[in-house]
Amino acid sequence: MWGALSPVGRSAQSGGYFRQPFRTAESELRSWFVEACTARGLRLEGDGLGNLVGWWGEEHATRPDERLLTGSHLDSVLDGGAYDGPLGVVSALAAVDRMRERGVVPSRPIGVSVFVEEEGSRFGLACLGSRLLTGATTWEHARELRDRDGVALPDALAAVDLPGLDPGAGDARDLLAGVTTFVELHVEQGRALVDLGHAIGVASGIWPHGRYRFEMTGTADHAGTTRMEDRADPMLTYAMTALAADEQARLTGARATFGRIEVEPNGTNAVPSRVTGWLDARCEDEAALSELVAAVERRAQQRAETDGTAVRVVAESVSGLVTFDPALARHVAGDHAVGDWPVLPTQAGHDAGVLSTAGIPTVMLFVRNPSGVSHSPAESATVPDCLVGVDALADTLERLCR
């Protein structure tokens, strides 16, 4: 399975992946998923956004109303790594294969899921598919989202022809009907497991995080004839804001990143009229997140007064603190032949966090990442660790069925 996915959407230049929602590469992966479910005899369900679930064991389940869901996502960030998302989908299918080899007859129906637009790389709202499924975001809001080329979400959906995809269905939530537990396997996006010497870990929770759009406006002018003291240059305001975010995060042990910027008119010999930068901010608790963003905004406004520019801040998406079910985490992490798996927090957002916030008991498994690098072509995992992850997921699903 991994060999089949490896070339899809991969850049020949960087080795990274471009698997944005409702474009060719991501659509090819979802078609692959449909074929993989069909080959295993899994009953496939889809909703209007392209979220998919393949169900196993419904005919023999003695607890049919206590559905157990696993899986992850297939989309990527721009120039992303191979493992973030797809590892969880492939491992879930492999775990079903492993349980079948063991002769397991699940007492609960087990679903393998694919959530769309988890990264928010095209329409700017992370975990869009799971947010719509849980009601955290409405279709009325989502239908207004546009990508960088100005394409509206409904138009992007209408251009895709895949099984289970009906743009008119909007925010149908039937895919989560009866789901009482969700398990997501994911490559670790840091070095904690490397430092601890474990191949597998269990998540305790997810830091609060958000995406904030900083719009800085000034006056376009000539780069050569305009004296420095006569300029209203929003690029200067942006530059000092980015430095302020870095300083504030370092002082508080938080995370702050300006990773995307747009400049108008974007000319080499012109003072820009507008600079828009997107701040990704993450903190240990929600109060700290609010204070971090407020502090960065204050510094931006102060600098704007010096530059003769204006600043406007818009919160595009904010996710609160997620604490995964502690009893479920302990149950999954303990009592293994190789010893207990470590329980650790994560600073990265996941569909698991959205489902947990919606009240579905949720647990996450992490597979060791030797490089510790993620959202980059350097993201990695070894084959032996990935196979341990398959067994860990199969063991977890089997135990939860019992």
From TrEMBL:
E.C. number: 3.5.1.87
Cofactor(s) the protein needs: Zn(2+)
Alphabetized UniProt keyword annotations: Hydrolase, Metal-binding, Zinc
A molecular-function term among this protein's GO annotations: N-carbamoyl-L-amino-acid hydrolase activity
SUPFAM superfamilies attached to this UniProt entry: Bacterial exopeptidase dimerisation domain (SSF55031), Zn-dependent exopeptidases (SSF53187)
Binding site for Zn(2+) 1: 73, 84, 186
Binding locations of allantoate: 211, 269, 282
Free-text cofactor note: Binds 2 Zn(2+) ions per subunit.
Residues holding Zn(2+) 2: 84, 119, 375
One Pfam family here: Peptidase_M20
Family per record: Belongs to the peptidase M20 family.
NCBIfam families xrefs: hydantase, PRK09290.1-4
Protein name: N-carbamoyl-L-amino acid hydrolase
Organism: Nocardioides dokdonensis FR1436
